[in-house]
Design a protein that fits this description.
Layout (H helix, E strand, L loop, with lengths): L5 E8 L3 H8 L5 H4 L3 E6 L8 E8 L2 E13 L3 E8 L2 E14 L2 E10 L7 H12 L6 H21 L9
Antiparallel strand pairs: 1-7, 2-3, 3-4, 4-5, 5-6, 6-7
Length: about 170
């Protein structure tokens, strides 16, 4: 099987795009959504350029990544880049598309950035050591995680557990 470099999953949420965006752009709530992320350290308001640290867990393994918001367009897109020790690892993001009737298609996407650079091999090796997951299996794991994440966001937003407004 050929390695996947890009993965995306979608879900329809019974809420307006602004509400869905508020949920995914609230970095402090991300541990509620993600099966791997258990804590986020971020200072100040979240906007394009905001830097934060994500603390992750998979089984007994724990690691952190440094991240920065690369796109923050309310009601449309929220994305961030992930690095480990200054080396690019991934791009994560959410596309938000109003589809009418008070419904929104929410797509989570991931792109593996561990290729075509001098740091690709070392950061892939570190990823395996820290997470226990070889780089060529990361896409499949992320696909399962995305499905869980999207379902948690959908359930929270539709269930009235609305996020606070993000300017």
């Amino acid at each position: 099987m050929e390695r996947e470099w890009v993965v995306e999953e979608s879900v329809v949420v019974g809420a307006e795009p602004a509400e869905v965006y508020a949920a995914v752009a609230d970095l402090r709530r991300m541990p509620e959504w993600s099966p791997e992320l258990f804590a986020v350290w971020v200072r100040g308001e979240v906007a394009e350029g905001t830097r934060f640290v994500g603390f992750n867990r998979l089984g007994w393994r724990i690691w952190f990544t440094t991240c920065w918001v690369s796109a923050a367009v309310p009601g449309e897109v929220f994305a961030f880049r992930v690095a480990s020790f200054g080396m690019p690892v991934a791009l994560w993001g959410y596309r938000i598309e109003g589809i009418g009737g008070g419904r929104t298609r929410l797509t989570e996407y991931w792109e593996d950035l561990r290729r075509d650079s001098r740091s690709a091999r070392p950061v892939s090796l570190m990823g395996r050591v820290f997470t226990g997951v070889p780089a060529d299996r990361r896409a499949a794991l992320n696909r399962r995680g995305m499905r869980a994440t999207l379902e948690r966001i959908r359930t929270a937003v539709e269930g009235g557990n609305r996020p606070r407004d993000i300017p």
